[in-house]
Amino acid sequence: MPPGKRPSWPSADRRHSPTDRDGSVPENAVGVVFTMARPEGAEAVGSDQPRNTRRPRPMTPKRFMPAILVAGLFAACTGAASPSPAAPSTGPSASPESAAPSPSPSPTPVATVPSNQLIFAGKLVICSDIPYPPQEFFDAQGNATGSDIDIGFEIAKRLGLQAEVENAVFDTIIAAVTGGKCDIIISAQNINADRVKQVDMIPYFEAGQSFMVAKGNPKAINALDDLCGKSIGAESGTTEAFYVKGSDQYKGDGLTKECADKGKPAPSLKEYQKDSDTVLALQSGAIDAYFGDTPVVVNYATSKPDQFEVSSVPPLTGIKEGISVPKDKMGLRDAVVAALKSMIDDGTYNTILKKYNVDTGALKSSDVVPVTK
């Protein structure tokens, strides 16, 4: 379809708050929401911008950020982060030339989602903890983009639905989907037994976990033992935090135990509600090492080589990430499985991953089997 033409399937709007180019929401933009349609025909680009540093407003008994981003289907090429707040926009600011591509529509939906299994008829609301580049982040205009976001929008399109993105806090993101704030989660969630007790998880990607240090490696962190006695930052509720303190799937194991077994001091874990806060902590010297998913660590170190570098500490073995669906919505779950498999089979899935340089984490269609217990 030529650029500038409207797509023939239901338009996928992204509701978003105006943001600075580093992904943060300006103080004078709180509560401002816009809805934009993404023009067809241009590409979204990965970002080096860290996650939003604003604290979310309470929404659940725990903290959850209801700052809603309906990702307008365009994504402008990103540049260097700007330290000064951007004034709120009053309408679409991207041209078709700088907007993300709208994938060509399937002739007919690959599956039908029972209407009683969606929060809003005709819509697929996706919870994602933004930013976590390159899987989910804000572009220069404050729109949600990234490999996870593109996968979510493609799934929605193949189900004949309009996609919306709701920004969430990772530590309470499962409570959001089970509490009816969104239909599914696509947010670099590793599949583990504790999560599967609460939601069904559909494998869609695989990633290891790596450490990042300040440029020049001032703390001389070269091996796992070098992390003993050091301060390590990780986003709360993540595999990385579990590994350092020895909880969840690492209960009775993990880095703290490994250090103790070798007679070395325990690492000091500092947990942050948003990943961007963890990055800023490393940047300011508040922590000695950042711990995150390998694609994210590589993204930060590559985009800011004058500030960060990937540690030589070997990454943890890759873990499959899953799309989370409430356990009582099996019809929705099975429809998402059908859409994802069709994306893998026709090559669209791999094209999305290559666009963000994360195709080494690609799964096969045969891997897309829901984990339910």
What features would you describe in this structure?
The chain has 373 residues and is an alpha/beta fold. The protein has two domains: 13-205 and 320-367, Periplasmic binding protein-like II (D-Maltodextrin-Binding Protein, domain 2, 3-Layer(aba) Sandwich), CATH 3.40.190.10; 208-318, Periplasmic binding protein-like II (D-Maltodextrin-Binding Protein, domain 2, 3-Layer(aba) Sandwich). The protein is built from nine helices and 14 strands. The strands form four sheets. Strands 9, 10, 11, 12, 13 and 14 form a six-stranded mixed beta sheet that branches. A four-stranded mixed beta sheet has the order 3-7-4-8. β5 and β6 (144-145) form a beta hairpin. α1 packs across α8 (330-346) and α4 runs parallel beside α5 (254-261). The longest helix has 17 residues, at 330-346.
Order of helices and strands: EEEEEEHEHEHEEHHEHEHEEHH
Remind me, CATH topology of the largest domain?
A: D-Maltodextrin-Binding Protein, domain 2
Task: Kindly provide the radius of gyration, computed on alpha-carbon positions and rounded to a whole number of angstroms.
Answer: 20 Å
Q: From the helix content, strand content and strand pairing, which structural class follows?
A: alpha/beta
Distance between the termini: 43 Å
Secondary structure elements and pairings:
Blueprint (H helix, E strand, L loop, with lengths): L12 E4 L17 E4 L30 E3 L52 E6 L8 E2 L5 E2 L1 H12 L3 E6 L5 H6 L5 E2 L7 H4 L2 E16 L16 E5 L3 H7 L8 H8 L6 E5 L2 H10 L4 E5 H10 L4 E3 L5 E11 L3 H17 L1 H8 L18
Parallel strand pairs: 4-7, 4-8, 10-11, 10-12
Antiparallel strand pairs: 1-2, 3-7, 5-6, 9-12, 9-13, 9-14
